[in-house]
Amino acid sequence: MRILFVCLGNICRSPMAEFVMRKMVKDAGLSDRFLIASAATSVEEIGNPVYPPAKRTLAQHGIDCTGKTARQMTRADYEYFDAIIAMERANLPAIQRIIGSDDQHKVSLLLDHTDHPHDIADPWYTGNFDITWDEVNEGCAALLSEYASRV
């Protein structure tokens, strides 16, 4: 199962989701069955590392994201990945512009896989990386539960 997490800049939410999901998959002994990455819808942060407060939040939970830099999603990503997971509804129009039609129904919102769907607020603006951590964990746990039976 190949999963691409997507947010606006690929420096906060989507890399947090990428590395949280990688850890969950590893802890479940399924690393050989998943490929997990993240990307941006914009070009604003391309090449930049994970935003320091996001990196610190991951590190506080024993997760290292060293070496991750922002990249923009491409049309080829749609063909390659099995699931495109956006962080908020506002990401969807940009994803649509990049991929064209979602005729394979690969695009969804992370928290739509949980019992209480809603957008993950952008901590770049809210400053609350702990809430983002909690929501990303909830969403990734739901994804793993849903996708583990498919691999």
Structure description:
The protein is α/β, with parallel strands linked by helices. It has six helices and four strands; from the N terminus they run E-H-E-H-H-E-H-E-H-H. It has one domain: Response regulator (Rossmann fold). The protein has helices at 13-27, 52-60, 75-80, 92-99, 123-126, 129-148, and strands spanning 2-7, 35-40, 83-86, 107-109. Helix 1 crosses helix 6 (129-148). It starts with a strand and ends with a helix. The model has no long low-confidence stretch (mean pLDDT 96).
What is the strand tally? 4
Which CATH class?
A: Alpha Beta
Instruction: Please indicate the percent range of residues in DSSP E strands (runs of 2 or more).
Output: 5-15%
Number of helices: 6
What do the pLDDT scores average to? Answer: 96
Number of domains: 1
Summarize the helix and strand pattern as letters: EHEHHEHEHH
What percent of the residues sit in helical stretches (DSSP H or I)? Answer: 40-55%
Radius of gyration: 14 Å
CATH architecture: 3-Layer(aba) Sandwich
| Biggest sheet descriptor | 4 strands, parallel
Uncertain spans, ≥5 residues at pLDDT below 50?
A: none
Structural class: alpha/beta
Overall shape: it is globular
Distance between the termini: 6 Å
The CATH topology comes to Rossmann fold
Q: Strand order of the main beta sheet, please?
A: 2-1-3-4
CATH superfamily: Response regulator
